[in-house]
Design brief:
Distance between the termini: 67 Å
Number of helices: 1
Helix content: 10-25%
Strand content: 25-35%
Structural class: alpha+beta
Order of helices and strands: EEEEH
Strand order of the largest sheet: 1-2-3-4
Largest sheet: 4 strands, antiparallel
């Protein structure tokens, strides 16, 4: 038996693709927040804050090479 997704509609939201108003639903899938337009089925994902911060962490510099 598959786990059903709890879906919520976002009042006043406009689809970025088809521009339909009040057609965006929000749900979680595999611990990722997603939105989907019920008119054109456009989907977008929202990464968690932890993932976004990890992607923005600068790489550590071990050393600098300076040619002579």
């Amino acid at each position: 038996m598959s786990k059903q997704r709890k879906k919520r509609f976002i009042a006043g939201a406009t689809c970025p693709k088809c521009k339909a108003v009040d057609s965006i639903m929000l749900f979680m899938e595999n611990d990722v927040e997603k939105i989907e337009c019920v008119e054109c089925h456009h989907q977008q994902s929202q990464v968690s804050d932890e993932v976004a911060k990890a992607a923005q962490t600068p790489e550590q510099v071990i050393g600098m090479f300076t040619p002579e």
